[in-house]
Design a protein that fits this description.
503 residues; mainly alpha; 81% helix
Length: 503
Protein backbone atom coordinates (compact mmCIF):
# COMPACT_ATOMS: atom_id res chain seq x y z
CA UNK A 1 0.00 0.00 0.00
CA UNK A 2 1.46 3.36 -1.08
CA UNK A 3 1.99 6.07 1.49
CA UNK A 4 -0.40 9.05 1.39
CA UNK A 5 1.35 11.90 -0.45
CA UNK A 6 1.59 14.18 2.57
CA UNK A 7 3.14 11.41 4.66
CA UNK A 8 5.68 10.82 1.89
CA UNK A 9 6.55 14.53 1.82
CA UNK A 10 6.86 14.52 5.59
CA UNK A 11 9.24 11.54 5.61
CA UNK A 12 11.43 13.06 2.88
CA UNK A 13 11.59 16.27 4.90
CA UNK A 14 12.37 14.28 8.03
CA UNK A 15 15.35 12.57 6.42
CA UNK A 16 16.72 15.87 5.10
CA UNK A 17 16.45 17.22 8.64
CA UNK A 18 19.40 15.05 9.67
CA UNK A 19 21.35 18.14 8.61
CA UNK A 20 19.58 20.04 11.38
CA UNK A 21 20.32 17.19 13.79
CA UNK A 22 24.03 17.81 13.17
CA UNK A 23 23.62 21.50 13.97
CA UNK A 24 21.70 20.80 17.16
CA UNK A 25 24.19 18.16 18.27
CA UNK A 26 27.15 20.45 17.75
CA UNK A 27 25.39 23.33 19.50
CA UNK A 28 24.61 21.11 22.46
CA UNK A 29 27.88 19.22 22.75
CA UNK A 30 30.22 22.19 22.83
CA UNK A 31 28.95 23.29 26.27
CA UNK A 32 29.81 19.85 27.64
CA UNK A 33 33.18 19.81 25.89
CA UNK A 34 34.44 23.16 27.19
CA UNK A 35 33.17 22.28 30.70
CA UNK A 36 34.88 18.86 30.87
CA UNK A 37 37.86 18.41 33.19
CA UNK A 38 40.02 16.63 30.62
CA UNK A 39 39.48 19.41 28.07
CA UNK A 40 40.47 22.08 30.62
CA UNK A 41 43.54 20.18 31.77
CA UNK A 42 44.78 19.46 28.23
CA UNK A 43 44.27 22.87 26.66
CA UNK A 44 43.97 25.22 29.68
CA UNK A 45 42.08 27.74 27.53
CA UNK A 46 41.63 31.34 28.61
CA UNK A 47 38.21 33.02 28.12
CA UNK A 48 39.19 34.37 24.68
CA UNK A 49 40.30 30.92 23.47
CA UNK A 50 37.11 29.35 24.82
CA UNK A 51 35.09 31.98 23.01
CA UNK A 52 36.94 31.18 19.78
CA UNK A 53 36.23 27.45 20.11
CA UNK A 54 32.53 28.35 20.20
CA UNK A 55 32.42 31.29 17.80
CA UNK A 56 34.64 29.88 15.02
CA UNK A 57 31.96 27.26 14.44
CA UNK A 58 29.36 29.93 13.72
CA UNK A 59 31.89 31.97 11.73
CA UNK A 60 32.35 28.93 9.51
CA UNK A 61 28.58 28.54 9.32
CA UNK A 62 28.33 32.15 8.09
CA UNK A 63 30.66 31.26 5.20
CA UNK A 64 28.76 28.05 4.52
CA UNK A 65 25.43 29.84 4.30
CA UNK A 66 26.92 32.27 1.77
CA UNK A 67 28.37 29.40 -0.27
CA UNK A 68 25.04 27.56 -0.25
CA UNK A 69 23.37 30.54 -1.90
CA UNK A 70 25.34 29.76 -5.06
CA UNK A 71 25.66 25.98 -4.79
CA UNK A 72 21.93 25.47 -4.31
CA UNK A 73 21.17 27.09 -7.67
CA UNK A 74 24.16 25.65 -9.54
CA UNK A 75 24.14 21.96 -8.65
CA UNK A 76 20.74 21.45 -7.01
CA UNK A 77 19.47 20.98 -3.48
CA UNK A 78 20.52 17.32 -3.05
CA UNK A 79 24.10 17.76 -4.28
CA UNK A 80 24.51 20.77 -1.99
CA UNK A 81 23.32 18.69 0.98
CA UNK A 82 25.79 15.89 0.07
CA UNK A 83 28.73 18.31 -0.26
CA UNK A 84 27.88 19.97 3.06
CA UNK A 85 27.75 16.57 4.78
CA UNK A 86 31.24 15.71 3.52
CA UNK A 87 32.62 19.03 4.77
CA UNK A 88 30.99 18.50 8.17
CA UNK A 89 32.54 15.02 8.51
CA UNK A 90 35.99 16.48 7.85
CA UNK A 91 35.44 19.14 10.52
CA UNK A 92 34.13 16.60 13.02
CA UNK A 93 37.17 14.37 12.50
CA UNK A 94 39.51 17.32 13.02
CA UNK A 95 37.78 18.19 16.29
CA UNK A 96 37.78 14.65 17.66
CA UNK A 97 41.46 14.20 16.86
CA UNK A 98 42.59 17.65 18.05
CA UNK A 99 46.07 17.71 19.59
CA UNK A 100 46.14 21.40 20.43
CA UNK A 101 43.66 24.23 20.72
CA UNK A 102 44.42 25.53 17.21
CA UNK A 103 43.70 22.10 15.75
CA UNK A 104 40.33 22.06 17.50
CA UNK A 105 39.47 25.59 16.40
CA UNK A 106 40.23 24.70 12.76
CA UNK A 107 37.93 21.70 13.00
CA UNK A 108 35.19 23.88 14.45
CA UNK A 109 35.48 26.30 11.54
CA UNK A 110 35.37 23.55 8.89
CA UNK A 111 32.40 21.83 10.57
CA UNK A 112 30.70 25.20 10.72
CA UNK A 113 30.95 25.57 6.94
CA UNK A 114 29.11 22.28 6.54
CA UNK A 115 26.44 23.19 9.09
CA UNK A 116 25.88 26.65 7.62
CA UNK A 117 25.31 25.13 4.19
CA UNK A 118 22.90 22.54 5.61
CA UNK A 119 20.96 25.07 7.68
CA UNK A 120 20.41 27.20 4.62
CA UNK A 121 19.55 24.50 2.07
CA UNK A 122 17.52 21.99 4.13
CA UNK A 123 14.49 24.20 5.01
CA UNK A 124 14.49 25.55 1.47
CA UNK A 125 14.45 21.99 0.10
CA UNK A 126 11.67 21.04 2.51
CA UNK A 127 9.52 24.06 1.60
CA UNK A 128 9.82 23.34 -2.12
CA UNK A 129 8.65 19.74 -1.66
CA UNK A 130 5.75 20.39 0.70
CA UNK A 131 2.07 20.92 0.07
CA UNK A 132 1.02 24.44 1.26
CA UNK A 133 -1.26 23.02 3.96
CA UNK A 134 1.60 21.17 5.70
CA UNK A 135 4.55 23.36 4.71
CA UNK A 136 4.92 24.82 8.19
CA UNK A 137 4.87 21.37 9.77
CA UNK A 138 7.56 20.05 7.41
CA UNK A 139 9.88 23.05 7.66
CA UNK A 140 9.39 22.99 11.45
CA UNK A 141 11.30 19.71 11.28
CA UNK A 142 14.42 21.87 11.00
CA UNK A 143 14.02 23.07 14.58
CA UNK A 144 12.59 19.76 15.83
CA UNK A 145 15.58 17.75 14.62
CA UNK A 146 17.86 20.48 15.94
CA UNK A 147 16.22 19.76 19.29
CA UNK A 148 16.72 16.01 18.85
CA UNK A 149 20.40 16.67 18.16
CA UNK A 150 20.71 18.88 21.22
CA UNK A 151 18.95 16.24 23.34
CA UNK A 152 21.34 13.51 22.18
CA UNK A 153 24.30 15.82 22.75
CA UNK A 154 23.17 16.67 26.28
CA UNK A 155 22.84 13.07 27.42
CA UNK A 156 25.89 11.81 25.52
CA UNK A 157 27.94 14.69 26.92
CA UNK A 158 26.64 14.06 30.43
CA UNK A 159 27.32 10.33 30.11
CA UNK A 160 30.88 10.91 28.91
CA UNK A 161 31.47 13.48 31.66
CA UNK A 162 30.51 11.07 34.46
CA UNK A 163 31.61 7.87 32.67
CA UNK A 164 35.20 8.74 31.80
CA UNK A 165 37.91 9.76 34.22
CA UNK A 166 38.66 13.51 34.52
CA UNK A 167 42.07 12.84 32.93
CA UNK A 168 40.69 10.75 30.03
CA UNK A 169 40.49 12.71 26.76
CA UNK A 170 37.65 10.44 25.61
CA UNK A 171 35.51 12.60 27.88
CA UNK A 172 35.38 15.10 25.00
CA UNK A 173 36.79 13.22 21.98
CA UNK A 174 34.02 10.59 21.88
CA UNK A 175 31.09 13.05 21.80
CA UNK A 176 32.85 15.17 19.17
CA UNK A 177 33.58 12.14 16.98
CA UNK A 178 30.06 10.70 17.10
CA UNK A 179 28.65 13.65 15.16
CA UNK A 180 30.28 12.32 11.97
CA UNK A 181 27.91 9.31 11.83
CA UNK A 182 24.59 11.05 11.03
CA UNK A 183 26.35 13.36 8.56
CA UNK A 184 27.67 10.31 6.72
CA UNK A 185 24.19 8.76 6.56
CA UNK A 186 22.72 11.98 5.16
CA UNK A 187 25.44 12.47 2.54
CA UNK A 188 25.34 8.87 1.31
CA UNK A 189 21.56 8.46 1.07
CA UNK A 190 20.22 11.87 0.03
CA UNK A 191 20.29 10.94 -3.68
CA UNK A 192 17.70 8.23 -3.01
CA UNK A 193 15.20 11.04 -2.42
CA UNK A 194 13.64 13.43 -4.96
CA UNK A 195 15.20 16.64 -6.16
CA UNK A 196 13.24 19.87 -5.74
CA UNK A 197 10.68 19.98 -8.59
CA UNK A 198 10.97 23.76 -8.73
CA UNK A 199 14.75 23.54 -9.21
CA UNK A 200 14.31 20.89 -11.93
CA UNK A 201 11.76 22.96 -13.85
CA UNK A 202 13.87 26.08 -13.42
CA UNK A 203 16.86 24.23 -14.92
CA UNK A 204 15.06 22.99 -18.05
CA UNK A 205 14.35 19.51 -16.69
CA UNK A 206 10.64 20.05 -17.11
CA UNK A 207 9.52 16.45 -17.62
CA UNK A 208 11.53 15.27 -14.62
CA UNK A 209 10.15 18.12 -12.53
CA UNK A 210 6.58 17.20 -13.47
CA UNK A 211 7.21 13.57 -12.56
CA UNK A 212 8.66 14.53 -9.16
CA UNK A 213 5.60 16.71 -8.51
CA UNK A 214 3.39 13.75 -9.38
CA UNK A 215 5.42 11.42 -7.14
CA UNK A 216 5.13 13.84 -4.25
CA UNK A 217 1.46 14.70 -4.56
CA UNK A 218 -0.36 11.99 -6.57
CA UNK A 219 1.45 8.64 -6.39
CA UNK A 220 3.17 9.36 -9.71
CA UNK A 221 0.04 10.34 -11.68
CA UNK A 222 1.14 13.23 -13.93
CA UNK A 223 -2.46 13.79 -15.08
CA UNK A 224 -3.72 14.45 -11.56
CA UNK A 225 -5.63 17.80 -11.61
CA UNK A 226 -3.85 19.23 -8.56
CA UNK A 227 -0.45 18.30 -10.03
CA UNK A 228 -1.29 19.94 -13.36
CA UNK A 229 -2.48 23.13 -11.66
CA UNK A 230 0.64 23.29 -9.48
CA UNK A 231 2.89 22.53 -12.47
CA UNK A 232 1.33 25.32 -14.54
CA UNK A 233 1.58 27.76 -11.63
CA UNK A 234 5.28 26.97 -11.20
CA UNK A 235 5.96 27.47 -14.92
CA UNK A 236 4.04 30.76 -15.02
CA UNK A 237 5.77 31.97 -11.87
CA UNK A 238 9.23 31.06 -13.20
CA UNK A 239 8.57 32.78 -16.53
CA UNK A 240 7.61 35.99 -14.73
CA UNK A 241 10.52 35.69 -12.28
CA UNK A 242 13.07 35.19 -15.06
CA UNK A 243 11.82 38.34 -16.79
CA UNK A 244 12.26 40.27 -13.54
CA UNK A 245 15.06 38.27 -11.94
CA UNK A 246 17.79 39.88 -9.88
CA UNK A 247 21.13 39.42 -11.62
CA UNK A 248 23.15 40.43 -8.56
CA UNK A 249 22.85 40.83 -4.80
CA UNK A 250 22.45 44.58 -5.27
CA UNK A 251 19.52 44.20 -7.65
CA UNK A 252 17.89 41.84 -5.19
CA UNK A 253 17.08 44.73 -2.83
CA UNK A 254 16.05 47.26 -5.49
CA UNK A 255 12.65 45.64 -5.88
CA UNK A 256 10.46 46.88 -3.02
CA UNK A 257 8.75 43.54 -2.49
CA UNK A 258 12.07 41.67 -2.39
CA UNK A 259 13.65 44.27 -0.11
CA UNK A 260 10.77 44.01 2.33
CA UNK A 261 11.11 40.23 2.51
CA UNK A 262 14.86 40.36 2.94
CA UNK A 263 14.59 43.06 5.58
CA UNK A 264 12.08 41.08 7.64
CA UNK A 265 13.90 37.73 7.28
CA UNK A 266 17.24 39.28 8.22
CA UNK A 267 15.57 41.00 11.18
CA UNK A 268 13.91 37.72 12.17
CA UNK A 269 17.14 35.72 12.20
CA UNK A 270 19.01 38.46 14.01
CA UNK A 271 16.23 38.88 16.57
CA UNK A 272 16.21 35.16 17.36
CA UNK A 273 19.85 35.29 18.42
CA UNK A 274 19.09 38.32 20.58
CA UNK A 275 16.49 36.37 22.55
CA UNK A 276 19.45 34.98 24.52
CA UNK A 277 19.17 31.39 23.33
CA UNK A 278 22.77 31.13 22.16
CA UNK A 279 24.14 32.47 25.42
CA UNK A 280 22.29 29.74 27.32
CA UNK A 281 23.18 26.99 24.84
CA UNK A 282 26.90 27.73 24.77
CA UNK A 283 27.59 28.85 28.32
CA UNK A 284 24.98 27.17 30.50
CA UNK A 285 27.67 25.87 32.93
CA UNK A 286 29.02 29.41 33.37
CA UNK A 287 25.55 30.93 33.79
CA UNK A 288 24.31 28.22 36.14
CA UNK A 289 27.52 28.46 38.18
CA UNK A 290 26.58 32.05 38.99
CA UNK A 291 23.62 30.75 40.97
CA UNK A 292 25.75 28.17 42.79
CA UNK A 293 25.25 24.98 40.71
CA UNK A 294 28.12 22.55 40.04
CA UNK A 295 29.16 21.57 36.50
CA UNK A 296 27.71 18.07 36.89
CA UNK A 297 24.38 19.46 38.11
CA UNK A 298 24.33 21.95 35.27
CA UNK A 299 24.92 19.31 32.60
CA UNK A 300 22.16 17.14 34.06
CA UNK A 301 19.68 20.01 34.20
CA UNK A 302 20.65 21.08 30.68
CA UNK A 303 19.96 17.54 29.47
CA UNK A 304 16.48 17.72 31.01
CA UNK A 305 16.12 21.13 29.37
CA UNK A 306 16.69 19.45 25.98
CA UNK A 307 13.74 17.13 26.58
CA UNK A 308 11.54 20.14 27.34
CA UNK A 309 12.68 21.83 24.12
CA UNK A 310 11.88 18.72 22.12
CA UNK A 311 8.34 18.58 23.50
CA UNK A 312 7.82 22.23 22.59
CA UNK A 313 9.17 21.69 19.06
CA UNK A 314 6.88 18.70 18.58
CA UNK A 315 3.88 20.79 19.64
CA UNK A 316 4.96 23.45 17.15
CA UNK A 317 4.95 20.86 14.37
CA UNK A 318 1.41 19.82 15.31
CA UNK A 319 -0.14 23.27 15.55
CA UNK A 320 1.91 25.78 13.52
CA UNK A 321 -0.19 25.38 10.36
CA UNK A 322 -3.35 25.97 12.41
CA UNK A 323 -2.12 28.88 14.52
CA UNK A 324 -0.20 30.65 11.76
CA UNK A 325 3.16 32.41 12.03
CA UNK A 326 2.50 35.92 13.29
CA UNK A 327 0.93 35.58 16.75
CA UNK A 328 2.97 32.58 17.94
CA UNK A 329 6.13 34.57 17.17
CA UNK A 330 4.88 37.67 18.99
CA UNK A 331 3.68 35.72 22.03
CA UNK A 332 6.90 33.72 22.29
CA UNK A 333 9.04 36.86 22.40
CA UNK A 334 6.88 38.30 25.20
CA UNK A 335 7.24 35.14 27.29
CA UNK A 336 10.99 35.03 26.58
CA UNK A 337 11.36 38.58 27.89
CA UNK A 338 9.46 37.79 31.07
CA UNK A 339 11.66 34.74 31.71
CA UNK A 340 14.88 36.71 31.28
CA UNK A 341 13.51 39.43 33.54
CA UNK A 342 12.87 36.89 36.33
CA UNK A 343 16.29 35.31 35.76
CA UNK A 344 17.95 38.70 35.96
CA UNK A 345 16.24 39.47 39.27
CA UNK A 346 17.34 36.14 40.72
CA UNK A 347 20.95 36.69 39.70
CA UNK A 348 20.88 40.20 41.19
CA UNK A 349 19.31 39.11 44.49
CA UNK A 350 21.53 36.02 44.85
CA UNK A 351 24.92 37.06 43.47
CA UNK A 352 27.79 34.64 42.66
CA UNK A 353 29.88 33.55 45.61
CA UNK A 354 27.06 33.86 48.14
CA UNK A 355 25.49 30.91 49.94
CA UNK A 356 22.44 30.82 47.70
CA UNK A 357 19.35 29.00 49.03
CA UNK A 358 18.03 25.96 47.22
CA UNK A 359 14.80 27.82 46.43
CA UNK A 360 16.75 30.41 44.40
CA UNK A 361 18.48 27.66 42.44
CA UNK A 362 15.17 25.92 41.72
CA UNK A 363 13.63 29.22 40.63
CA UNK A 364 16.49 29.93 38.25
CA UNK A 365 16.35 26.42 36.77
CA UNK A 366 12.56 26.65 36.32
CA UNK A 367 12.88 30.04 34.64
CA UNK A 368 15.44 28.63 32.20
CA UNK A 369 13.21 25.66 31.41
CA UNK A 370 10.13 27.83 30.83
CA UNK A 371 12.15 30.13 28.58
CA UNK A 372 13.40 27.16 26.60
CA UNK A 373 9.86 25.84 26.12
CA UNK A 374 8.65 29.25 24.93
CA UNK A 375 11.56 29.72 22.52
CA UNK A 376 11.40 26.18 21.12
CA UNK A 377 7.63 26.31 20.58
CA UNK A 378 7.74 29.34 18.26
CA UNK A 379 10.81 31.57 17.86
CA UNK A 380 13.21 28.77 16.97
CA UNK A 381 11.06 26.93 14.40
CA UNK A 382 9.66 30.12 12.84
CA UNK A 383 13.15 31.50 12.24
CA UNK A 384 13.55 28.70 9.65
CA UNK A 385 9.95 28.39 8.45
CA UNK A 386 9.36 32.02 7.45
CA UNK A 387 12.54 32.66 5.37
CA UNK A 388 12.08 29.33 3.54
CA UNK A 389 8.56 30.19 2.39
CA UNK A 390 8.38 33.93 1.67
CA UNK A 391 10.71 34.23 -1.36
CA UNK A 392 9.96 33.31 -4.96
CA UNK A 393 12.01 30.63 -6.76
CA UNK A 394 14.60 32.93 -8.35
CA UNK A 395 15.35 34.80 -5.12
CA UNK A 396 14.81 32.00 -2.59
CA UNK A 397 18.37 30.68 -2.36
CA UNK A 398 19.95 34.12 -2.04
CA UNK A 399 17.28 35.40 0.32
CA UNK A 400 17.48 32.39 2.64
CA UNK A 401 21.27 32.47 2.37
CA UNK A 402 21.46 36.10 3.48
CA UNK A 403 19.05 35.54 6.39
CA UNK A 404 20.99 32.47 7.53
CA UNK A 405 24.28 34.36 7.31
CA UNK A 406 22.89 37.02 9.64
CA UNK A 407 21.82 34.30 12.07
CA UNK A 408 25.33 32.91 12.24
CA UNK A 409 26.95 36.36 12.36
CA UNK A 410 24.87 37.26 15.41
CA UNK A 411 25.48 33.79 16.85
CA UNK A 412 29.24 34.34 16.50
CA UNK A 413 29.01 37.68 18.25
CA UNK A 414 27.00 36.25 21.17
CA UNK A 415 29.39 33.31 21.48
CA UNK A 416 32.40 35.61 21.70
CA UNK A 417 30.87 38.23 23.99
CA UNK A 418 28.97 36.08 26.51
CA UNK A 419 31.88 34.67 28.61
CA UNK A 420 33.44 38.14 28.88
CA UNK A 421 30.10 39.82 29.69
CA UNK A 422 29.16 37.25 32.34
CA UNK A 423 32.55 37.73 33.96
CA UNK A 424 32.54 41.54 33.91
CA UNK A 425 28.91 42.65 34.27
CA UNK A 426 27.15 39.51 35.56
CA UNK A 427 23.38 39.87 35.91
CA UNK A 428 23.35 43.18 33.98
CA UNK A 429 24.07 41.22 30.79
CA UNK A 430 20.49 39.90 31.03
CA UNK A 431 19.13 43.42 30.55
CA UNK A 432 20.15 43.19 26.88
CA UNK A 433 17.98 40.13 26.30
CA UNK A 434 15.03 41.48 28.28
CA UNK A 435 14.92 44.59 26.11
CA UNK A 436 15.48 42.71 22.85
CA UNK A 437 12.71 40.17 23.48
CA UNK A 438 10.10 42.84 24.19
CA UNK A 439 11.15 44.99 21.23
CA UNK A 440 11.11 41.89 19.00
CA UNK A 441 7.44 41.37 19.90
CA UNK A 442 6.56 44.98 19.03
CA UNK A 443 8.54 44.85 15.77
CA UNK A 444 6.86 41.71 14.41
CA UNK A 445 3.42 42.85 15.59
CA UNK A 446 3.87 45.95 13.47
CA UNK A 447 5.58 44.58 10.34
CA UNK A 448 5.09 40.84 9.84
CA UNK A 449 2.09 39.72 7.72
CA UNK A 450 0.65 36.22 8.04
CA UNK A 451 2.18 33.78 5.51
CA UNK A 452 0.57 30.53 6.67
CA UNK A 453 -0.99 28.40 3.89
CA UNK A 454 -0.12 30.91 1.15
CA UNK A 455 1.16 28.97 -1.92
CA UNK A 456 4.82 29.65 -2.73
CA UNK A 457 3.86 30.84 -6.21
CA UNK A 458 1.50 33.44 -4.65
CA UNK A 459 4.02 34.99 -2.24
CA UNK A 460 4.88 37.84 -4.60
CA UNK A 461 1.29 39.09 -4.59
CA UNK A 462 1.08 38.81 -0.81
CA UNK A 463 4.18 40.96 -0.25
CA UNK A 464 3.20 43.47 -2.91
CA UNK A 465 -0.33 43.97 -1.50
CA UNK A 466 0.09 43.71 2.26
CA UNK A 467 0.68 47.08 3.99
CA UNK A 468 3.98 47.77 5.76
CA UNK A 469 2.16 48.48 9.01
CA UNK A 470 0.19 45.26 9.17
CA UNK A 471 -2.22 46.00 12.10
CA UNK A 472 -3.93 48.73 10.07
CA UNK A 473 -5.30 46.17 7.61
CA UNK A 474 -7.44 43.12 8.08
CA UNK A 475 -6.14 39.84 6.70
CA UNK A 476 -9.02 39.55 4.22
CA UNK A 477 -8.12 42.94 2.69
CA UNK A 478 -4.82 41.71 1.34
CA UNK A 479 -5.22 37.92 1.29
CA UNK A 480 -8.76 37.55 -0.03
CA UNK A 481 -7.73 36.46 -3.54
CA UNK A 482 -5.03 34.13 -2.23
CA UNK A 483 -7.41 32.51 0.23
CA UNK A 484 -10.02 31.98 -2.49
CA UNK A 485 -7.37 30.24 -4.60
CA UNK A 486 -6.29 28.12 -1.65
CA UNK A 487 -9.92 27.13 -0.97
CA UNK A 488 -10.45 26.19 -4.63
CA UNK A 489 -7.35 24.00 -4.61
CA UNK A 490 -8.42 22.41 -1.32
CA UNK A 491 -11.90 21.71 -2.70
CA UNK A 492 -10.39 20.21 -5.84
CA UNK A 493 -8.07 18.05 -3.78
CA UNK A 494 -11.01 16.90 -1.63
CA UNK A 495 -13.02 16.02 -4.74
CA UNK A 496 -10.11 13.99 -6.10
CA UNK A 497 -9.66 12.20 -2.78
CA UNK A 498 -13.37 11.39 -2.56
CA UNK A 499 -13.44 10.10 -6.14
CA UNK A 500 -10.44 7.88 -5.44
CA UNK A 501 -12.13 6.38 -2.37
CA UNK A 502 -15.33 5.72 -4.37
CA UNK A 503 -13.39 3.89 -7.07
Amino acid sequence: MALPPKWYQFLVGLFASIGSFNYGYDLGIIAQVVASDSFSSKFAPNPDETGLVVSLFTAGAFCGAFMAGYLGDMVGRRATIAAASAIFILGGALQAGGQNIGYLQAGRFVAGIGVGTLCMIVPLYQAELAHPTIRGRITALQQFMLGVGALCASWIGYGCYVGFAPTDSRQWRVPLGLQCIPAGILGLLIFLFPESPRWLIDNNKVAEGLQVLADLHAHGNTEDPWVRVEFEQIQESLTFEHDHAAKSWGELVKNKSNFRRIFLCVALQGSVQMTGVSAIQYYSPTIFAQIGLSTEQTLKYQAINSIIALIAQFLCMLFIDRLGRRWPLISSNIFNGICFLVGMILLKQFPPGSNNPRSAQIGFIATTWIYNFSFSAACGPLSWIIPAEVFNTTTRTRGVSLATMISFAMNTMIGQVTPIAMDRVGWRYYILFVVCNFTNAIFFWALLPETSKVPLEAMDRLWENAPWFVPTMRRKDYLAELEREAEEVAEKQQTITTATHVE
